[in-house]
Amino acid sequence: MPCPRHALPCAVPPHILERIVRNGTEEQRSRALSTLLQDTSHRTIRVHNALMRSTRRGAVPPRPAPETGPRRTVSDAGGTEILPGAMVREEGGAAIDDAAVNEAYDGLGSTFAFYSDVLGRSSIDDEGMALLATVHYGDHYENAFWNGRQMVFGDGDGELFKRFTASLDIIGHELTHGVTEDEAALMYVNQSGALNESISDVFGSLVKQYVRGQTAEQADWLIGDELLTDAVQGVALRSMKAPGTAYDDPVLGDDIQPDHMDRYVRMTADNGGVHINSGIPNKAFYLAATALGGYAWEKAGRIWYETLRAPQIRPNTTFRAFASVTVHQAGLLFGADARKAVSEAWQAVGIVVRAAGQVSAAGQVSAAGQVSAAG
């Protein structure tokens, strides 16, 4: 089955769901197909919501300083596709006898705390935006997504995927789509779309590392490692440390994420491979974070965040342009050693940033320092 023309920023990429449609049991195929069809509609809603927020932001004067602390509301769709569903827990409310509700509530709080405590950001929009989530969405819906206004979580099919609230890095990933939308509005296509996905993986992983108190060396750098059931031959949806190694399963297929520009995938499906080619900047961040050492959010995370906010980042920003700004920000924030570490991380995945800040896809560097494109 062909991929929907427009991909949705969501936890499970469309190419995995397509493989389930081809390779799964009749019931697995039916649920994956249903998820794919719903995801196409949700993307339209997300684009509409983003445009509405952008219009309001341009027309309304800045609001007063926001209240401190998150404002969380978790609702229960009860297996329907009606949003937001019945409210079951709100800010300050006690935990209830529903693991998905409590996981969503805690995940929203952990993501808010990370952005607030580490980056000085007040919620998704930096203006104290309320954090809303709906759990138990759909009939065995096999995904989680940010629709421009709120988080939505399915319960998975129980055969291949567990409930999606179980993964903190997935919650951080999806909420970060809202941050990226607010700061840079990266187009969800080709390299800018892959950067959009990668930035969500970066900060989703950092939220998990922050909560666990892990250094860059201690972290697993896996995305969605809590989601796969024991029936799946794999460890996660993606690996930032080793893109292309997260799973190799008869139903899900093999992990096709590249880790270098030499293996960049040119395709029309998945909006130009946004969930696939994100492996390249993911690997660059992992290499930069481990080279800089310590807690990844302190240096590498700050560099990537300030890059996202930099005026040089445009909606159609490419890997090369983004790499150049990260190297510049590294030097501004942490000096020459950090600049060198970040530059070498990008070079290792096939993006060379030259001394003057110009960037080229990696090829052979001549004695004169000129770079020939190889992707």
UniProtKB/TrEMBL annotation:
Q: Which InterPro entries match?
A: Metalloprotease_M4, Peptidase_M4, Peptidase_M4/M1_CTD_sf, Peptidase_M4_C_domain, Peptidase_M4_domain, Protealysin_N_PP
EC numbers listed for it are 3.4.24.-
Sorted alphabetically, which keywords does the UniProt record give? Hydrolase, Metal-binding, Metalloprotease, Protease, Secreted, Zinc
Q: Output the Gene Ontology cellular-component terms.
A: extracellular region
- Give GO terms for biological process: proteolysis
Positions of the Peptidase M4 domain: 93-181
Residues in domain Protealysin N-terminal propeptide? 12-36
**Intracellular or extracellular location(s):** Secreted
Q: Is Repressor given among the entry's keywords?
A: no
Fetch the PANTHER family from UniProt: NEUTRAL METALLOPROTEINASE, PTHR43579
Name by which UniProt lists this protein: Neutral metalloproteinase
Q: Which organism is it from?
A: Frankia casuarinae (strain DSM 45818 / CECT 9043 / HFP020203 / CcI3)
